[in-house]
Amino acid sequence: MKKFDIRKFKLRKVTADQLSDRLLLINLYITQAITFIIGLIVVLLQGRNLIALFEWPGSYEFALWGGGLGLAVLLANVALSKFVPEDAQDDGGINERMFRDRPIWHIAVLAAIISVCEELLFRGALQHAFGPYWTSIVFAGIHVRYLRHWIPTGLVFIISYGLGWAMIRTGTIWTPILAHFLIDFIMGCIIRLRREKA
Predict the structure, then answer these.
(1) Alpha helices (runs of H) in the chain, residue ranges in sequence order
(2) At residue 198, does pLDDT exceed 70?
(3) What is the pTM for the complete model shown?
(4) Taking a C-beta distance cutoff of 8 angstroms, is the pair 166, 137 a contact?
């Protein structure tokens, strides 16, 4: 059996086109698992009750706020895409690769996983410690694929701040989870259906 030599290990930058669909999907699941674990650890280190954080709200006001925010972001995104050149919205092709060949049920599963994992870390853990402004800066920073262009980076920051504000307004993490799910699911479906029409 051949021994592993750390000196021969090299990291290299790859684009979305250089990754297979399987590897891209595995990468997404791994990063979301890491995000969830970090969020879980931070919440527990803060001495907070994870079950209480995810307690189902007593009223459905959160659904109005989450659904309204999600739809407002989608409408703003569609309107913005009419005025902003495509190269200024480029994310390196990640979203296109992630959603274009997925069945709708898988897009829903991905959107659910992403929304729960990211909202646990950002709204559940970091916002509790740093508030919505600094949390949104970190949120925009980890969406590194958008950092090449200021418009999508600014949009990610504004969306994150809106998610944080909605959580404060309604007092439940389910509001940003719902909004995040709707944004990712509907945008994923648009990418998927746009490809079918092409």
Answers:
(1) 21-45, 50-53, 61-83, 94-99, 104-119, 127-142, 150-170, 174-197
(2) no
(3) 0.86
(4) no
Which is more confidently placed, 87 or 26?
26
162 neighbors 71 (Cβ within 8 angstroms): no
* Pairwise CA distance, residues 155 & 87, whole Å: 15
- Token reading at 182: 């709707």
Q: Which two tokens stand for residue 129?
A: 């410690």
| Residue 153 tokens, joined | 């980076």
The answer to whether 170 touches 65, Cβ cutoff 8 Å, is: yes
**pLDDT (tens digit per residue) in 48-98:** 999 999 999 989 999 999 999 999 999 988 888 888 777 666 666 777 888
For tokens 């739809």, name the residue: 71
The contacts of residue 70 (CB under 8 Å, 6+ apart) are 178, 179, 180, 181, 182, 183, 186
The model's confidence at residue 47, banded by pLDDT at 50, 70 and 90, is: very high
Report the greatest alpha carbon distance in the chain: 61
Angle at 34 between CA 28 and CA 39, to 5 degrees: 125
CB atoms within 10 A of CB 89: 15
Q: 46 by DSSP, 3-state: which?
A: coil
